[in-house]
Design goal:
The protein is mainly alpha-helical. The chain has helices spanning 15-31, 33-55, 66-96, 98-104, 109-128, 144-169, 178-191, 213-221, 237-245, 247-260, 267-294, and strands at residues 200-203, 226-227, 230-234. The protein has a 3-stranded antiparallel beta sheet, with no helix packed on it. Strand 2 and strand 3 (230-234) form a beta hairpin.
Protein backbone atom coordinates (compact mmCIF):
# COMPACT_ATOMS: atom_id res chain seq x y z
CA UNK A 1 0.00 0.00 0.00
CA UNK A 2 3.03 2.29 -0.28
CA UNK A 3 1.60 3.79 -3.46
CA UNK A 4 -1.33 5.16 -1.43
CA UNK A 5 0.70 6.90 1.27
CA UNK A 6 2.85 9.33 -0.67
CA UNK A 7 2.11 12.87 0.55
CA UNK A 8 3.17 14.52 -2.73
CA UNK A 9 0.15 13.58 -4.90
CA UNK A 10 -2.15 16.41 -5.87
CA UNK A 11 -3.32 15.39 -9.37
CA UNK A 12 -6.81 13.82 -9.14
CA UNK A 13 -5.91 10.87 -11.37
CA UNK A 14 -2.99 8.76 -10.13
CA UNK A 15 -2.48 5.62 -12.30
CA UNK A 16 -0.57 3.90 -9.47
CA UNK A 17 -3.54 4.29 -7.11
CA UNK A 18 -5.96 3.06 -9.78
CA UNK A 19 -3.70 0.06 -10.42
CA UNK A 20 -3.45 -0.87 -6.71
CA UNK A 21 -7.21 -0.66 -6.17
CA UNK A 22 -7.95 -2.55 -9.43
CA UNK A 23 -5.42 -5.29 -8.62
CA UNK A 24 -6.84 -5.71 -5.12
CA UNK A 25 -10.32 -6.39 -6.53
CA UNK A 26 -8.91 -9.01 -8.92
CA UNK A 27 -6.92 -10.71 -6.15
CA UNK A 28 -9.97 -10.83 -3.90
CA UNK A 29 -11.99 -12.39 -6.72
CA UNK A 30 -9.26 -14.95 -7.49
CA UNK A 31 -9.28 -16.08 -3.85
CA UNK A 32 -13.08 -16.35 -3.66
CA UNK A 33 -14.03 -19.48 -5.60
CA UNK A 34 -17.65 -19.22 -4.46
CA UNK A 35 -18.22 -16.43 -7.01
CA UNK A 36 -17.03 -18.68 -9.84
CA UNK A 37 -19.27 -21.48 -8.57
CA UNK A 38 -22.19 -19.05 -8.42
CA UNK A 39 -21.54 -17.91 -11.99
CA UNK A 40 -21.56 -21.47 -13.33
CA UNK A 41 -24.57 -22.40 -11.17
CA UNK A 42 -26.67 -19.45 -12.43
CA UNK A 43 -25.68 -20.21 -16.02
CA UNK A 44 -26.68 -23.87 -15.82
CA UNK A 45 -29.95 -23.12 -14.00
CA UNK A 46 -31.10 -20.29 -16.23
CA UNK A 47 -29.58 -21.07 -19.60
CA UNK A 48 -29.68 -24.88 -19.68
CA UNK A 49 -32.49 -25.94 -17.34
CA UNK A 50 -34.86 -22.99 -17.77
CA UNK A 51 -33.84 -22.36 -21.38
CA UNK A 52 -34.44 -25.90 -22.58
CA UNK A 53 -37.34 -26.45 -20.15
CA UNK A 54 -39.40 -23.49 -21.31
CA UNK A 55 -38.00 -23.97 -24.80
CA UNK A 56 -40.06 -27.15 -24.96
CA UNK A 57 -43.19 -24.99 -24.64
CA UNK A 58 -42.13 -22.06 -26.84
CA UNK A 59 -41.20 -23.03 -30.36
CA UNK A 60 -39.29 -19.80 -30.73
CA UNK A 61 -39.26 -16.10 -29.91
CA UNK A 62 -38.82 -13.91 -32.96
CA UNK A 63 -37.16 -16.82 -34.71
CA UNK A 64 -34.78 -17.70 -31.85
CA UNK A 65 -35.03 -20.61 -29.43
CA UNK A 66 -35.87 -19.64 -25.85
CA UNK A 67 -32.36 -20.58 -24.69
CA UNK A 68 -30.89 -18.32 -27.37
CA UNK A 69 -33.27 -15.50 -26.47
CA UNK A 70 -32.39 -15.49 -22.75
CA UNK A 71 -28.64 -15.98 -23.41
CA UNK A 72 -27.80 -12.22 -23.16
CA UNK A 73 -30.00 -12.05 -20.06
CA UNK A 74 -27.97 -14.78 -18.33
CA UNK A 75 -24.78 -12.82 -19.10
CA UNK A 76 -26.43 -9.74 -17.62
CA UNK A 77 -27.51 -11.64 -14.49
CA UNK A 78 -23.94 -12.78 -13.83
CA UNK A 79 -22.69 -9.21 -14.29
CA UNK A 80 -25.31 -7.80 -11.90
CA UNK A 81 -24.35 -10.26 -9.14
CA UNK A 82 -20.60 -9.88 -9.60
CA UNK A 83 -20.58 -6.07 -9.83
CA UNK A 84 -22.90 -5.53 -6.87
CA UNK A 85 -21.03 -8.06 -4.75
CA UNK A 86 -17.77 -6.29 -5.52
CA UNK A 87 -19.28 -2.93 -4.61
CA UNK A 88 -20.90 -4.13 -1.40
CA UNK A 89 -17.51 -5.48 -0.27
CA UNK A 90 -16.88 -1.82 0.52
CA UNK A 91 -18.91 -2.38 3.69
CA UNK A 92 -16.58 -5.20 4.72
CA UNK A 93 -13.55 -2.96 4.06
CA UNK A 94 -15.12 -0.37 6.33
CA UNK A 95 -15.77 -2.90 9.11
CA UNK A 96 -12.15 -4.16 9.14
CA UNK A 97 -10.75 -0.61 9.00
CA UNK A 98 -9.06 -0.91 5.61
CA UNK A 99 -11.34 1.63 3.99
CA UNK A 100 -10.50 4.23 6.66
CA UNK A 101 -6.77 3.78 5.95
CA UNK A 102 -7.39 4.36 2.25
CA UNK A 103 -9.68 7.34 2.77
CA UNK A 104 -7.32 9.18 5.14
CA UNK A 105 -4.34 8.68 2.82
CA UNK A 106 -3.43 11.48 0.37
CA UNK A 107 -4.55 9.25 -2.53
CA UNK A 108 -6.92 11.21 -4.82
CA UNK A 109 -10.50 10.07 -4.25
CA UNK A 110 -11.20 9.95 -7.99
CA UNK A 111 -8.34 7.47 -8.44
CA UNK A 112 -9.48 5.36 -5.47
CA UNK A 113 -13.05 5.25 -6.80
CA UNK A 114 -11.94 4.59 -10.38
CA UNK A 115 -9.71 1.70 -9.28
CA UNK A 116 -12.57 0.24 -7.28
CA UNK A 117 -15.03 0.59 -10.18
CA UNK A 118 -12.65 -0.78 -12.82
CA UNK A 119 -11.86 -3.72 -10.53
CA UNK A 120 -15.55 -4.47 -10.09
CA UNK A 121 -16.13 -4.11 -13.84
CA UNK A 122 -13.25 -6.51 -14.61
CA UNK A 123 -14.63 -9.13 -12.24
CA UNK A 124 -18.08 -8.63 -13.80
CA UNK A 125 -16.68 -9.24 -17.30
CA UNK A 126 -15.02 -12.47 -16.14
CA UNK A 127 -18.27 -13.65 -14.53
CA UNK A 128 -20.31 -12.49 -17.53
CA UNK A 129 -18.04 -14.51 -19.83
CA UNK A 130 -18.97 -17.81 -18.16
CA UNK A 131 -22.18 -18.18 -20.26
CA UNK A 132 -20.06 -17.67 -23.38
CA UNK A 133 -18.59 -21.13 -22.72
CA UNK A 134 -22.09 -22.58 -23.18
CA UNK A 135 -22.86 -20.60 -26.37
CA UNK A 136 -22.03 -23.48 -28.78
CA UNK A 137 -24.48 -25.75 -26.91
CA UNK A 138 -27.41 -23.47 -27.75
CA UNK A 139 -26.29 -22.56 -31.27
CA UNK A 140 -24.88 -19.08 -30.66
CA UNK A 141 -21.60 -18.21 -32.35
CA UNK A 142 -19.35 -15.17 -32.11
CA UNK A 143 -16.89 -13.65 -34.53
CA UNK A 144 -13.81 -11.97 -33.05
CA UNK A 145 -15.38 -8.57 -33.67
CA UNK A 146 -18.72 -9.42 -32.04
CA UNK A 147 -16.90 -11.00 -29.08
CA UNK A 148 -14.86 -7.83 -28.50
CA UNK A 149 -18.02 -5.71 -28.77
CA UNK A 150 -19.80 -7.99 -26.30
CA UNK A 151 -16.95 -7.65 -23.79
CA UNK A 152 -17.07 -3.86 -24.27
CA UNK A 153 -20.79 -3.72 -23.46
CA UNK A 154 -20.27 -6.08 -20.52
CA UNK A 155 -17.47 -3.88 -19.15
CA UNK A 156 -19.59 -0.72 -19.36
CA UNK A 157 -22.52 -2.50 -17.68
CA UNK A 158 -20.18 -3.80 -14.97
CA UNK A 159 -18.78 -0.29 -14.44
CA UNK A 160 -22.29 1.16 -14.16
CA UNK A 161 -23.59 -1.47 -11.74
CA UNK A 162 -20.44 -1.29 -9.59
CA UNK A 163 -20.83 2.49 -9.38
CA UNK A 164 -24.47 2.11 -8.44
CA UNK A 165 -23.50 -0.51 -5.88
CA UNK A 166 -20.87 1.75 -4.31
CA UNK A 167 -23.52 4.43 -3.79
CA UNK A 168 -25.74 1.82 -2.08
CA UNK A 169 -22.83 0.42 -0.04
CA UNK A 170 -21.93 3.89 1.24
CA UNK A 171 -25.33 3.93 2.96
CA UNK A 172 -25.30 0.35 4.27
CA UNK A 173 -24.46 -0.16 7.94
CA UNK A 174 -23.69 -3.89 7.91
CA UNK A 175 -22.55 -6.51 5.42
CA UNK A 176 -25.57 -8.66 6.27
CA UNK A 177 -27.72 -6.22 4.32
CA UNK A 178 -26.44 -7.70 1.07
CA UNK A 179 -29.31 -10.21 1.13
CA UNK A 180 -31.85 -7.43 0.87
CA UNK A 181 -29.79 -5.81 -1.88
CA UNK A 182 -29.81 -9.10 -3.78
CA UNK A 183 -33.57 -9.47 -3.62
CA UNK A 184 -34.51 -5.80 -3.74
CA UNK A 185 -32.16 -4.53 -6.44
CA UNK A 186 -30.72 -7.28 -8.62
CA UNK A 187 -33.96 -9.12 -9.30
CA UNK A 188 -36.01 -6.03 -10.29
CA UNK A 189 -33.18 -4.83 -12.55
CA UNK A 190 -33.02 -8.29 -14.13
CA UNK A 191 -36.70 -9.08 -14.55
CA UNK A 192 -37.55 -5.54 -15.77
CA UNK A 193 -34.93 -5.57 -18.52
CA UNK A 194 -36.70 -7.78 -21.07
CA UNK A 195 -34.23 -10.55 -20.24
CA UNK A 196 -36.73 -13.41 -20.10
CA UNK A 197 -39.66 -12.07 -22.11
CA UNK A 198 -39.86 -9.94 -25.26
CA UNK A 199 -41.11 -6.37 -25.10
CA UNK A 200 -43.32 -7.10 -28.10
CA UNK A 201 -43.43 -9.49 -31.00
CA UNK A 202 -44.44 -13.09 -31.69
CA UNK A 203 -43.77 -16.17 -29.57
CA UNK A 204 -43.97 -19.42 -31.45
CA UNK A 205 -44.21 -17.81 -34.89
CA UNK A 206 -41.47 -16.65 -37.20
CA UNK A 207 -40.24 -13.14 -37.83
CA UNK A 208 -41.20 -9.85 -36.22
CA UNK A 209 -44.56 -8.22 -36.67
CA UNK A 210 -45.15 -4.79 -35.15
CA UNK A 211 -48.90 -4.43 -35.33
CA UNK A 212 -50.48 -0.96 -35.11
CA UNK A 213 -52.42 -0.56 -31.85
CA UNK A 214 -55.71 -0.10 -33.67
CA UNK A 215 -55.26 -3.34 -35.63
CA UNK A 216 -54.13 -5.24 -32.50
CA UNK A 217 -57.17 -4.01 -30.55
CA UNK A 218 -59.47 -4.95 -33.41
CA UNK A 219 -57.96 -8.46 -33.56
CA UNK A 220 -58.35 -8.86 -29.79
CA UNK A 221 -61.96 -7.63 -30.01
CA UNK A 222 -62.60 -10.37 -32.55
CA UNK A 223 -60.91 -12.92 -30.23
CA UNK A 224 -57.82 -13.35 -32.41
CA UNK A 225 -54.66 -13.67 -30.29
CA UNK A 226 -52.52 -15.74 -32.62
CA UNK A 227 -51.20 -15.06 -36.10
CA UNK A 228 -49.49 -17.69 -38.21
CA UNK A 229 -49.30 -20.10 -35.29
CA UNK A 230 -47.56 -17.55 -33.04
CA UNK A 231 -48.73 -15.66 -29.99
CA UNK A 232 -48.77 -11.90 -30.40
CA UNK A 233 -47.10 -10.39 -27.35
CA UNK A 234 -47.23 -6.82 -26.12
CA UNK A 235 -46.58 -5.82 -22.51
CA UNK A 236 -49.11 -3.75 -20.52
CA UNK A 237 -48.36 -0.04 -20.58
CA UNK A 238 -47.37 0.15 -16.90
CA UNK A 239 -44.90 -2.68 -17.36
CA UNK A 240 -43.51 -1.05 -20.52
CA UNK A 241 -42.85 2.13 -18.51
CA UNK A 242 -40.87 0.21 -15.88
CA UNK A 243 -38.89 -1.69 -18.51
CA UNK A 244 -38.03 1.43 -20.51
CA UNK A 245 -37.04 3.30 -17.31
CA UNK A 246 -34.56 0.56 -16.40
CA UNK A 247 -31.06 1.39 -17.78
CA UNK A 248 -30.14 -2.31 -17.79
CA UNK A 249 -32.76 -2.78 -20.54
CA UNK A 250 -30.63 -0.80 -23.01
CA UNK A 251 -27.36 -2.57 -22.10
CA UNK A 252 -29.09 -5.93 -22.56
CA UNK A 253 -30.69 -4.87 -25.85
CA UNK A 254 -27.28 -3.84 -27.20
CA UNK A 255 -25.74 -7.08 -25.94
CA UNK A 256 -28.52 -8.99 -27.70
CA UNK A 257 -27.84 -7.04 -30.90
CA UNK A 258 -24.16 -7.99 -30.69
CA UNK A 259 -24.67 -11.67 -29.85
CA UNK A 260 -27.88 -12.48 -31.80
CA UNK A 261 -28.02 -9.55 -34.25
CA UNK A 262 -31.52 -8.80 -32.97
CA UNK A 263 -32.76 -5.86 -30.91
CA UNK A 264 -36.07 -4.29 -29.95
CA UNK A 265 -35.03 -0.74 -29.10
CA UNK A 266 -33.55 2.04 -31.28
CA UNK A 267 -29.76 1.78 -31.56
CA UNK A 268 -29.41 5.50 -30.75
CA UNK A 269 -31.20 5.00 -27.41
CA UNK A 270 -29.00 2.00 -26.55
CA UNK A 271 -25.78 3.89 -27.34
CA UNK A 272 -26.87 7.00 -25.44
CA UNK A 273 -27.57 5.02 -22.25
CA UNK A 274 -24.40 2.93 -22.59
CA UNK A 275 -22.28 6.11 -22.85
CA UNK A 276 -24.02 8.33 -20.28
CA UNK A 277 -24.82 5.89 -17.45
CA UNK A 278 -21.21 4.74 -16.75
CA UNK A 279 -20.06 8.37 -16.55
CA UNK A 280 -22.93 9.28 -14.25
CA UNK A 281 -22.47 6.32 -11.90
CA UNK A 282 -18.70 6.93 -11.75
CA UNK A 283 -19.35 10.53 -10.67
CA UNK A 284 -21.95 9.48 -8.08
CA UNK A 285 -19.68 6.75 -6.70
CA UNK A 286 -16.79 9.23 -6.33
CA UNK A 287 -19.06 11.66 -4.49
CA UNK A 288 -20.36 8.86 -2.24
CA UNK A 289 -16.83 7.80 -1.29
CA UNK A 290 -15.89 11.43 -0.67
CA UNK A 291 -18.81 11.73 1.75
CA UNK A 292 -17.58 8.60 3.56
CA UNK A 293 -14.20 10.35 3.91
CA UNK A 294 -15.77 13.39 5.60
CA UNK A 295 -17.76 11.35 8.18
Amino acid sequence: MKALTSPTRTFPLEPAVVWVMWRRELLRYARDRSQVFGGFSRTVLWLIILGFGLGASFRDIEGYTYAQYIFPGVITLNILFAALQSAVALVWDREVGLLREVLVSPAPMLSVALGKLLGGASVAVVQGSIPLLFAPLIGVSFSLGSLLLAWGVMALLGLSVTGFGVVLASRMATFEGFGSISNGVIQPLYFLSGSIFPLKGIIGGVGFLDLPDTLRQELERLGIHTIGGGWVVQLPVWLQVLVYANPVTYFLDLLRAVSLRYQQLPMAADLAVVVVVPLLTTLLATLAMSRMHRR
